[in-house]
Design goal:
3-stranded mixed β-sheet, 9 helices, 440 residues, alpha+beta
Length: 440
Amino acid sequence: MGHSEQSKSRWRWLAGGIVVVLACLAVASTALYAGDGPIEGLTLEGIPLRNDAPLDEQIEACAASWLDTPITIDGATAVLSATRRELGAEIDLAATQVHIRELGRTGSPFSALEVREAARRGDLDARLLVSVQRGQLRDWVSRLQPRIERAAVPAVIGSGGATVPGLPGVSLGLIAGVTSVRRALLQRQVYVQLPVMSNEPPQRAPVSLRDASFSELVAAYETQYAPRAGGGRSRNIERAARLLHGAVIAPGGTVSFNDRVGERSLERGFHGATELRSGRRVDGVGGGVCQVAATLYAAAFLGGFDVVEHHPHSRNLRYVEAGLDAAVVWDRKDLIVRNPFPHFVRVQAFTEGRTLRVELFGSRSGPIVEWSADVLEEVAPGVERVASADLPSGEERVVDEGEPGLLVEVSRIVRAESGTRRDVRRVRYPVADRIVEVGQ
């Protein structure tokens, strides 16, 4: 065979090989790009995706779970929790679906094969396409600021003559706070430490309790109760008021209701009375003490004091406005109030006739406080019928009228010498059904 014939044969063989390779690539591409479901082994935010279920439904379920996952926000003086949804995170469901369907099906066949192989090995986790509504996040952080920020407190001289060191102040920049939370959302973090700044207390002569003046009314609140001869609830209110009376709160210091009033027991002079437990009225010891805590909380809240610990009741109560109540349980739930002012404050609590009154006195009058309580949701109570052997057949007796469920937004604006701050809190009261006993 001549040289030219050998060359022609070689080129024919090479061309045939190229055709075979192209045919194989075409077959591979057809297999790679077939179908529109997720490729085998692919996960989305750690959740396996299946081909036997609609892709859009799987993405929606994953997005809902991701958005409703709470993250912890550490602000040094307060640690809070909020879901990603509440912080303004959003998911582009349509774009996420397109992204998942393109994985392992776009680009060259070789790169697509690499993507599929990574998915089969469990090394490929797709991500939801996340964005953050800056306005919503900014509003959330601005509502958080008053709960974190504290004015620096000078040193004080206690009743024993010892000097108690001052406390540094804490501040949080709005832009810095928004930036840190937004970064945590986009990076899938479940914990974020806010960039708070510490401000040293002022260098001045310590404030002495011996020189303290309690001549000015800082804040006051009163509630009504029904005194009855021998009534355990009224006697518990009066005893708790006597124990709370006289508490002194240093500048920057706190008062704990449980520490001041102590355990509610028969041995300590408290009486049996009806109390709330898990939304229902039951017999207990110390019923009525929560009204004293609520009256203190309302006076402190409306006087511009900081509230360190507070628990609402399991249902709305009538002796105080919705959103201003406070539940206390010995050794479990406390009410702790902080004095944000540069002077000592004294608590006065007393009863007179049908009135319980809590007053907070200091050397200066309190700041101007504007507040509101708006009901955002209301759920009507249902009816629960309970069989009773004590009633004649067919006769009914209402043992609990029940209460509607409420979601109340309580906000206040405190206009003090140190500046204006706004505080917004939401309080939820679960619905309590009407209980009716029915004779059998």
